[in-house]
Structures are given as structure tokens and as C-alpha cells.
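Shipment paperwork, digital attachment
Item: protein structure file
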Amino acid sequence: MRVRNRMMARSDGRLYCHIDIEAAPVLEDDVWPVVSARLGMAEIPAEVYPAEHVRDARAWVLVLPYFEKSVFDVRVSVGGAYADMRVSCARARFESPARHLIQRARHKGRYLGIERIQASWVKDRLRPSLDRLMVGQRGDVWRVCIAWDGAEDVRPRLSMIDAQGAPIAFEQYEFERQIGVESACGGHLNRYFYSLRLPCTCREFALYVKDEAGLAAPSFCSCDESFWRFREHESWEHMRDARADDRRYAAWFEEHRAHRGDLEVQRAHRFDREPLFSIVVPCFRSNGRFLSELIESVVSQSYRAWELVLVDSTPADGVVATSAMAAGDERIRVVPIAGNAGIVGNTNLGIDTARGDYIAFLDHDDLLEPDALFWYAREVVRDPSCSPEVLYCDEDLFEVTGAWRQPIFKTHLNVDLLYSHNCVTHFLCVSRELIDRIGMSPEDVAGAQDYDLTLRALAAGARFTHVPRVLYHWREHAGSTSGDNVGSKPYAIEAGRLALERHMASRGVSARAEEALQPFVYRVRYELPEPVPLVSVIIPSRDHADVLRACVGSLFKRSTYRAFEVIVVENHSVEPETRDLYGELSEAYGPAFRVLDISDAVEGFNYSRLINLGAAAAAGEYLLLLNNDTEVRSPDFMAEMLGYLQRPEVGVVGAKLYFRDGLTQHAGMLVGPHGTVCHPNQDFEPAREGYLSRAVRPGNFSAVTGACQMVRKSVFDEVGGYDEAFAVGFNDVDFCFRVRETGRLVTFTPYAELFHYEFVSRGREAADTVKLERWKREQALFTTRWPEPFLEGDPYSNPNLDPDSIYYGL
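Attachment content:
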């Protein structure tokens, strides 16, 4: 017998060889050849399939891993006969593109897609695929799907080899099982989902899957350098945020900024009233070119009612006076002072000198867009009965004028993010009436005087307005704090911490502010009352005794906060192991653990009903609503969440949750993408910050997941608990929205960490048509009840961002 390799094509990390088998025994329709391959002494996975693209019984497609520099020894057997051949991946690298095109042209496209043949064979055959790649600090994480059409009771065993045929050690995490999902060809697929964490970046490997039960044939998938780069870029494209691509942002900004025609329209517009804006600029050893550019950006404003107050603390150098004189605009006033009073003293002198209805603050090296004051004036006059008292806008960074980069698209006032760092910053503008009411900043907050003023305005109940337009350009240079340049003003870090701690004290909140690891970032640690309050942990559960044991055990064994009780809301368990576990836990933890069996009171599954019954039976002042498929990761998580609830304006607190493989599952919730509710910054490594560090800093969100929510029992009762119209989906989000309707905040803290083994105890809706229909009904109910974020955007996002991006993309 003889085997001839007619053509090679590589795709998705695999090598596809169109071979002709001229066999001594004639191949019948139901008889397939057997193939094996070796790389030196190592066995390499190999498969063979009928060549559907040609009508020739001799034509087959041999599938091998593509390892760029490898040469495989392949044996093809038919009956008792066999033939050997060598396959060079190095040769295929150069041969396959050109030869593939030639053969396709010669045979009028019949060779098109031979690399797709392997994927279609799933009947009683395991079919693995490398679906997603996340490149992390501890190595690569691959999300893998194994699909097959056949018996349900398969037991996949995964193994991996590198390009030399050596075994690769890896961490394996089972995510989910889906049974009987309808396939595109009309059959029903079973699917297992795994996450594989490789110890280091490995760009050439083969993943081999074998069924230990012997019910399904084995198979493999593989990765080469090209496929790895494709998946890496695909992941980058999917997860990129608004600051990931400066060139893309520059093009976006040029399209969205005000153009000459727009400015002419604005100049011709007359408001019913025209508030005067005083722009205060403290000047100390100013750069003449930077200052001239600043003045030009103010003089170019399309809104005319302004004055520019230049507080010159180094008049001897003549820079400020010369620059102001060159502009030749009578609205510019220079206020020279004999001695430098420091940034706070100079700023306060400018405020005293200002005549405007609003005082705005501009650094002496930064720039304004020409329509900045127009949009501020528009917000001020929009509703005279409740004019804003504090205004701020979006901004970006630059080193060279015109080379705008790293946009900062902000949200409506995000109080808890503000307590982490100054997320308001520029172009800060405060009403004169508010300044007269709260006073000016003290000397000891020098370098953080804008942060201090913002915090004191918040404490005074000021009305904040965010203008969602990039109107401010923050210059990056050695003397600026842009880009968290700690070397420019190290004293400003302590000044900001002091301002934050004073703010908490002024509000009667017992807390201390600490410097975080990053410059100009803080962590607030809240003091708990004595004696510490009781927290009732409500855990709805049905069977899955091993999952519940891990959850409850982690609470009692790892939590450093001890004043809690656990109430498991039992719902129609049928496995005897579950009842045995209840007895075991009751004996181990006594009255701190109890089971509330509501099986007779609830028909079917209604998660909201389970939560409400559990809450009604709770003795605690606080409720921790917890999924049974969670485990404690940070021992102080309960105290951390409880701390935020010592502030009366906080209604619900959520934690940071991780998948089994340690990647982020939940870091707040975003309403709107693709017409639903999503988890932003999902699949991040724990330390990956995400856009504006939203994944690693406390902040407010529209909602947090019900997999781990803490709330005062009084607030839970005030809003009527979970709405039982949402039996499974959207109940946690709806609850958060109703709490926010009372004027309270929903807060996410990354310092409370748990694992969440999502879909272990309750399958994914997409895998079950009945569940999917119910999910769609509940989605429709939610969007009908709460249309605003779908029409206007999530208030904790930004209208300039892609409404369908969960990574705050542009």
C-alpha cells in the first residue's frame, strides 16, 4: 500500500494534509484507516477523516498538531497493511499557502475548507476547542470547550504536550456542564467547559482529550505561534478599554470635538442669563510657552462671560505679565503678590479676587477646549431652580499640544470611587455661593486643595454635575501630577489622605484613611460599632452537598468576623447526602447554623422567594445574601463589607468574586450592554486594574450581584425584599435599583473577595430552552420597569463609551 501527501494547509494550530491512500485492501464505506504519529520517541495525536471535498474513496484528510520546526513520522494502517510517511511542519509553513491556492484554483474550489472537516465529526467523539486566551502574570489561561453528541456519562481526561512531545503540567478547573443543547445541524450536543492555567507562556502545544468511561472516541486540538497570536489579539480587542489605543482615541476626539462651524453657532447663542466664570490660575515659575498656550485656550472660548485671574507669585521673572499683555484681552487680570504664599494661599487669593458667579480652577500648564465654558454655562442655566454647584468634565493627557492621549471618561458623581482617589479633578468649577458657605481650603492640604474642596462640597450636600465631554487637556511633564507622577509633589499624597480623613470626621463617620500601594490612592477603613452587630448569612440551596459544605465551611473556618449566623434555605433537595450534611453542620456549628426547610411552602424554584423567607427568619441586624457555590477568599471580607454600611447613605454592598481559575467573575454590574446586565472587567487577573482602575478600587455601581450582597435588614424590609416576579434572573439587580430609588448607594469593594463557582448548582440559561424563555421574560420585565439606563445609559458609565462594551471601550 502507498500513501501520497497531495496538499497541506494549516489553520487553528493544526496541520491538515490531503492524502491519497492506495490500499491493498479496498476501503469500504464504513471502514476507516488507522493513523498514528510520533515525534522522535514521543507519541503525537493524529486523526483521519474522509475528504468530503472530492469524490474519491482514496482521499482522506490527515490532521496533526502544527509544531513549526517538527517532523512527524506517520503510519497509516488499513487492515493488516500499512504505509509510513514523513510530514514536515517547516515545509508546510511555506508550502501550504501557495499550494492551497493553486489546488483551489485547479479544482474550482473543491479544496476550500478541508481544515473545517475535523470540527464536524462529533458523533460519539469528543471535540475539544481552544475558545479564549487570557494572557496573565502567572501564565496563560485558556478557556476550553469539549463537545460531543452521544452518551452523557463520559469522563473526559485532559493531557497536554509541548512541541517536543514532552508533557506539560497545568491547572485544570471544571466550569460547567451542558447536556442536550440543540446544535446547528439539528442534533443535541453535550458540552463541558474548562479553564486551563499553564504555568508559563507556552505557544506551541497539543491538548488531548480521552474519555475514561470509553463511551466516546478521543480527539485533540492544538496551538501554534500564529493561532496563539490570533487568540491574544482577539482577547485584546475584546477587552480593550478607551485608553488602550491612543491613535484610535486621537481620531475619535478629532471627530467629536467642536469644529469651527460649531463654535460659530455657540458664539451666536444667547442664554437667558449669562453667569460670569472666573478662571483662577495660580502661577509659580510658569513656563512662558505653556502659559501662552493656556491663555490662548481661554481667549478662544465660544462663551464670552469669563475672566481669567492669573495669580503671579513670581512677578520678578515677568513671564505672567508678558504673556497676559501679549493676549491683549481686558478680561485677563494679573494679580501679583510679593511673596509666594504656596499653592493653597495663591489659590485662595485668586478666589478672593474673583468676581464671578462661578470659580473655575485651571493649572498654569494645561489647556481648555474652546467650548468648555459654553457647556458649563448651558448646565448652569438649564434649570435655575436647581443649578449645579459643582461642575466637572471629561479630560485627557498630552505632552505635545495636539497629541491628545489617555482619555478619562468620568461618570456621574461616584462617591466611593472619590473616596479612593480624586476622580473629579478637572475642570473643577464651584459656585461662589458654595465657596462662601463652606470656606476655602486650609494650608495643610497643599497639593490636594482641589480634592479637599470637592470633599467639603460633598459633605455640604452640594449638587454635582458631570459634563460628559472632553473639555480639559492635562499636560504631562516632570512638574505635573498627571499620570500619577509622585515625584512632582510627594507632599500631595499626605495632603489628600488628610483631606479624606477630615471629610469622614466631618460627616460623623468613624474611619481612618490610609495610603494605598498606588500614589494618590487611598483606602478607607471603617470602624465597626461595639459590640459588633450580628450578620445573618442567607444561603438558598438544593442538593450539591459538596458545594454547600465548601461554602459553609469556608465561612466558619476562614472568616475573621465571628458575629454571624448561617441560615440555609432548603428547597426540595432529594439527595440523601444533603440531609446528612445538614446534620453534620448542625453538630459542628451549633446554633450558629440552622436549616430553614421551605419545600412545602414553595413550588418549583423561585430564588427571590427563598431569599425573602430566609430574611424573614433572620435574627441579624444585617443580611448577607450568599450563593451556595461561593467560598471565602479574603478572611476579613465580612467586616470589610459591613464597614461601608456604617455610612447611612450606603444601601447595598457587593464583593469581588473570582472564577475557579482565579480570574475576575464580578467587580460590579453594568446595565445596558446588548440590552441586558453584564459584569464589567470579567476575566481579569486579580491585580489587573481595568479602565480608571474600576476593577481594583471601591466604587458605586448601578448594581452588584446577588451572589454576595450585604444589606441592612431594615433597608431590605423597607423596599420589600426581592421581587418574586423575578424568579431567577434580574432579581438582584432589580433589588439594587429599588434601593437606589430611596437615595442610597450601591457600593462595590474589591477588598472583600470570594470565589464564585458560577452555574455549578444552577445551569446556564443558554443550555436549557425552558430556562432561556424564562430568562427572556424576566429580562423584558426588567427593561420595562427600568427603561432609563437602556435609553440614557448607565449613570456609572459614560455616554462617550461603547454602550455594548463591558470593558469601557471607546
